[in-house]
Structure formats: C-alpha cells, structure tokens
Design a protein that fits this description.
Elements lengths: L2 E5 L3 H12 L3 E5 L15 E2 L12 H8 L7 E3 L4 H13 L3 H14 L3 H10 L7 E2 L3 E5 L4 H9 L11 E3 L1 H7 L9 E5 L3 E3 L1 H14 L3 E3 L6 E5 L2 E7 L2 E4 L2 E4 L5 H6 L8 E11 L9 E3 L4 E6 L2 E10 L8 H14 L7 E11 L6 E4 L6 E5 L5 H18 L25 E4 L1
Parallel strand pairs: 1-2, 1-14, 2-10, 4-18, 6-16, 14-21
Antiparallel strand pairs: 3-9, 5-9, 6-8, 7-8, 11-12, 11-22, 12-13, 15-18, 15-19, 16-17, 17-18, 20-21
The structure holds flavin-adenine dinucleotide (FAD).
C-alpha cells in the first residue's frame, strides 16, 4: 500500500486525507498544533460555490486606498509590513483587472462544480456528524445601488448549474430575516448556498480519520525534507523522520515556509480575518447574512451566532486586535433591529492568500512526489471537499477530471534552489 504524508491538518489537509484514505491509501497527517485549530476553526463556514470569485478585482485598488491604513476598516495593511510584502502586493495589484477576475472566477466555479454534491455525500455517509444548514445566503445593502452591480456579477453562476441569485425588495428582505432593521434598502438571495459550523466539520473529519486507521499526529511540526534525486523520501519532525511515497503540503498560510525547505519559493501571505461568536444570543437569526456595503458577515449556528469579516495584511501572526472585533459588532448593529448580546468569544485566523486569489493545487513540477494544496483565501471551507477529492485523484492516478491549469504552482515564477542530490533540509 502506498503511503501519503499530509503536512497541515486544517480543513484542506483533513479533506485530502479523507479522500486518500477512502481510496485505500495508508495516510499520516501531521499538524504543528491541533488539527483544525487555525484558520479552519472560527471562520463563517459558508459553503458557497457561487462566491468562488477571487479577491483581486477591477476597482479594488481604488476602494482599498481609502481603507487600507484605517485599523477599523474592512481592509487594513500594517504600514511596517510594506517593505517585506511589496513583491506580493505588486503581483496582487497586477491581478486587479476585469480579465484576471473573470478568468479566476471561472476557474473557481469549475473547481467548485461538485461542492454541493460532495457535501451531500459526506452527510449521507452517516459516519460523520457535523452541523450544516441549507438556508441559502442573503446579501443585504444599506445602499440599493450595489444590488444591480452584484446581480450582474453573479449571473455567470447559471453556466455552472447553480440557480441565479434573485433581487429582493426591502419588504421581502425584512420578511426573510426579521432581525434586520429598516435601514436595509434591499438585497439579493442565493438559494442553494449553505453554511456549516466549521469546527464540527473539522472534528468530524478528524474523528473519522482516526477511526479509519489514519495516523493523526498533533503538535508535530514538519521541520525539513529529505530529498533523494527528484523525490522526497521523508519529512523531519524533531529527531525523527517520517517516510512516505507521497507528500502533500496543506499548511495554509504557512505553506510558503514549508515549501521553502524544499527549495521552492511561492508567493503566499496571511490575510487575517476576525470573528466574534456570541453564545445564547439575544436575537435569533433565520439566515446567514452578507452585509454588503461593509463586507461583514453573520452566520447563525445552533445556540450561537458568529459575526465575522475584515482583511488585515500584517504578516504571519495571530495577534488579536480588539478594535477590529468592536468594529465588526458596530457595523453589524447598523443593519439590525437591536445589537446582539450574549457570551462573546473573539477569534482571528490567517487566510492563506496568493496574489491572484486562487489556491495552488497540484504537483510541484520539479519533484515527483511533492504536492501542494494551499491558498484558498476566503473559500477554504467551501472548496475543501472538491480540493481533497482532486488531490486524491492526483496522487492515485496522476490526473484529475477538473482542469487544474489555473491552479498550477508554476503560474508564479517559482525557483528551485538546489539540485538533485540526497540532502536534508532543515526548517
Ligand atoms: C474571518 C474569516 C471568515 C472566513 N469565512 C469563510 C467561509 O465562510 N467560507 C469559506 O469557505 N472560507 C472562509 N474563510 C477562509 C477559510 O477559513 C480558509 O480558507 C481555510 O480555513 C484555510 O484552510 P487551510 O487548511 O488551508 O489552512 P489552516 O486551517 O490554517 O490549516 C493549516 C494547518 O497547517 C498547520 N501547519 C502549518 N505549518 C506546519 C508545519 N510546519 N508542520 C505541520 N503543520 C503545519 C497549521 O497548524 C494549521 O493547522 C474565512 C476565513 C476567515 C479568517
């Protein structure tokens, strides 16, 4: 039996391990902390194939400029990060065009084609219990003028078998979600999208892996690779080496650091986002909501509600800035009949971000058995099952039914810095 080593146990690593095991492979998954404990935990849990568009878009630079140095805005760039981040930012700004956006959106929709079916199958499997809601998503706006623009943008989804988003009047929006206030001018309803409580999904996958013979190693950091010719033969963890036939890097925002140890440079940065989960909330919500003018989102779960959003480029760190949590709550209050009260738990997580907004999925061209699936930005939960399924096809058959050309690593100028020889590289 061939053995796959998965490095990084966030939602992408767990889903990849799940599909590899389903194909009968021997699998080991390692995580430097607790699997599911980083960006895959406190996020909003939207499973939203219609929203598979990349972050870089035409007009984004203009709107970002007014936000980016304000700490409580939807996008904040820490001034001291500019020198180290500028190569990434220059590439990102290059992708802020209509052409790149449409190409990226099409690629994202293609990758997400099977998303809803795969979530149905996971639920029907019966051996995984997780919280999933089929309520669609409701976008709401204080300024009505955004509605037509958004509707036009999302009309492409019909080509991928998804129902067209529908415009909703103020009256209709208030009927769908009575928690909204009179300030809301109207909205858009996307009927087939869903949301999950992400912590329940990662836990269900982890439990399934353990009971199906996968070795799940927590607090086990990949610290270097052992390379023989054009292959990796092992990954170093402290004084030990784990050997395997295939190696998958699913380390999210840390994927750049991990791959550097194999001599590869990829443009990956962290886009920090925040959420606050309010248990036993004073308001019951019917719907997940996207507060469109301010890019804040609300996800109702059993017994709690989560408010989240913001994008902070400040490097790899999980420092929690309370001002951003306060800003999420005050923004949400503008759209609601009353502010939400209850027991609050603040969180932040690092979205793995590439400059073109698409994940990197595929085999590393210069090494025969090293694969990567990282960089899912805002869509890691949504794209996890399709990515995991694709990864298991790539490892087992060397190909996938989905066109992976837009996700190739070598779309960025990657460098291989050492030659084919047996060597150990430490992280
Ligand atoms: C506020 C917010 C809201 C969001 N809402 C949504 C949403 O509604 N829907 C959606 O689809 N997405 C959403 N996202 C994005 C989603 O959370 C991410 O895309 C996703 O969690 C990324 O998963 P991952 O497995 O790539 O990374 P992670 O979950 O960060 O996992 C990477 C793992 O790799 C491990 N690791 C790192 N280095 C090493 C090493 N050297 N050795 C071993 N292990 C290592 C880490 O410990 C970590 O557990 C949101 C994100 C934020 C911040």
């Amino acid at each position: 039996m061939t053995k796959s080593i998965v490095i990084g146990g966030g939602i992408i690593g767990l889903a990849s391990a799940f599909f590899l095991r389903k194909k009968g492979m021997d699998v080991v998954i390692i995580d430097k902390g607790e699997p599911g404990g980083e960006c895959s935990s406190g996020n909003m849990g939207w499973v939203c194939p219609s929203l598979s568009d990349p972050i870089p878009a035409a007009g984004l630079i203009k709107s970002s400029l007014k936000w980016m140095l304000k700490r409580d805005s939807p996008l904040y760039i820490k001034p001291s990060i500019f020198p180290s981040l500028s190569p990434w930012l220059i590439q990102f700004w290059k992708y802020c065009s209509e052409d790149a956006y449409q190409k990226g959106y099409t690629a994202g929709l293609e990758l997400s084609r099977n998303t809803l079916r795969l979530f149905d199958e996971l639920e029907q499997d019966g051996s995984l219990e997780f919280e999933m809601h089929r309520k669609g998503l409701l976008f709401v706006f204080l300024d009505k003028s955004y509605i037509d623009e958004k509707l036009d943008n999302y009309s492409i989804v019909e080509r991928f078998g998804l129902p067209a988003p529908a415009a909703k009047s103020k009256k209709e929006v208030l009927e769908i979600e009575p928690a909204l206030s009179d300030a809301v001018a109207g909205g858009i309803y996307l009927p087939s999208e869903r949301h999950v409580r992400p912590e329940t999904l990662t836990k269900a996958l982890k439990d399934w892996l353990i009971s199906n013979g996968v070795e799940v190693l927590s607090h086990t950091e990949a610290m270097g690779f052992i390379q023989e010719g054009d292959k990796i033969s092992g990954v170093k963890i402290r004084e030990k080496t784990i050997e395997g036939d295939h190696f998958l890097v699913t380390a999210g925002a840390w994927a750049g650091l991990v791959l550097r140890q194999a001599g590869l440079h990829i443009p990956m940065t962290a886009g920090k986002g925040y959420s606050v989960t309010i248990s036993n909330p004073s308001i019951q919500f019917q719907q997940p909501l996207y507060l469109g003018d301010s890019r804040v989102t609300i996800s109702p779960f059993h017994d709690s509600v989560r408010i989240g959003g913001t994008m902070e480029l400040s490097g790899l760190n999980t420092n929690l800035d309370q001002r951003r949590i306060d800003s999420l709550k005050s923004t949400a209050a503008q759209y609601l009949r009353a502010s939400v009260r209850g027991d609050e738990q603040a969180w932040c997580g690092m979205r793995p971000m590439t400059p073109d907004g698409l994940p990197i999925i595929g085999k590393v061209p210069s090494l025969n058995n090293l694969f990567i699936a990282s960089g899912h930005a805002m869509s890691g939960i949504s794209m996890a099952l399709s990515t995991g399924s694709v990864m298991s096809d790539l490892v087992s058959k060397g190909k996938s039914d989905i066109d992976l050309a837009p996700f190739r690593l070598d779309r960025f100028s990657s460098k291989k810095t050492h030659e084919n020889q047996k060597k150990t590289v430490n992280m």
